């Protein structure tokens, strides 16, 4: 068996005396989803799928905010906007198409930034290796998704662009 930590073990602080920021963000995300999902399903009887999809994204945004504060990566606090947008869409019947597309783009880019940072730290701290670049397919995939969301948001605008 290998004594080398895997990336997922590194993220949650396997066998570490102090848990890393990712661990608290991950736990916070799941706690929020469980609590808000339970309360939300009790309060909102109709359209449970829409409610849960908004709450999943709100939980991700909250996890990103927790990570930003604990890791002192304050640029990721932009997800407070995303969190507010997701929660508003979860408990409101109004359509927030463009706003949600922007919020989703911010969350997606922030998640990529978070994992890219942790990937570099993993190679430097856990493996004591030269820091490899983030795989090109991951960056290209994120960029493609952000561009697709941007195109979707433009299509939702009145009179197009």
Can you walk through the features of this model?
The protein has helices spanning 7-12, 21-43, 48-71, 79-90, 97-126, 136-156. The chain has 161 residues and is mainly alpha-helical. Helix 2 runs antiparallel to helix 3 (48-71) and helix 3 (48-71) runs antiparallel to helix 4 (79-90). The model has no long low-confidence stretch (mean pLDDT 82).
Q: What are its keywords?
A:
mainly alpha; 72% helix; 161 residues
Task: Determine the structural class based on helices, strands and strand pairing.
Answer: mainly alpha
Q: What order do the helices and strands follow?
A: HHHHHH
Strand content: under 5%
| Rg (CA only) | 18 Å
Helix content: over 70%
Uncertain ranges: none
Short description:
The protein is mainly alpha-helical and 161 residues long.
How is this fold's topology laid out?
Blueprint lengths: L6 H6 L8 H23 L4 H24 L7 H12 L6 H30 L9 H21 L5
């Amino acid at each position: 068996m290998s004594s080398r930590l895997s990336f997922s073990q590194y993220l949650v602080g396997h066998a570490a005396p102090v848990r890393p920021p990712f661990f608290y963000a991950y736990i916070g995300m799941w706690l929020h989803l469980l609590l808000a999902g339970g309360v939300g399903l009790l309060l909102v009887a109709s359209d449970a799928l829409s409610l849960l999809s908004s709450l999943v994204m709100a939980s991700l945004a909250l996890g990103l905010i927790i990570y930003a504060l604990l890791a002192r990566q304050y640029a990721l606090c932009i997800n407070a906007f995303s969190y507010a947008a997701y929660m508003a869409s979860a408990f409101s019947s109004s359509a927030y198409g463009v706003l949600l597309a922007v919020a989703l783009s911010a969350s997606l880019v922030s998640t990529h930034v978070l994992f890219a940072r942790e990937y570099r730290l993993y190679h430097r701290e856990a493996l004591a290796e030269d820091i490899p670049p983030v795989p090109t397919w991951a960056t290209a995939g994120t960029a493609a998704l952000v561009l697709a969301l941007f195109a979707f948001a433009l299509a939702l605008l009145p009179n197009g662009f």
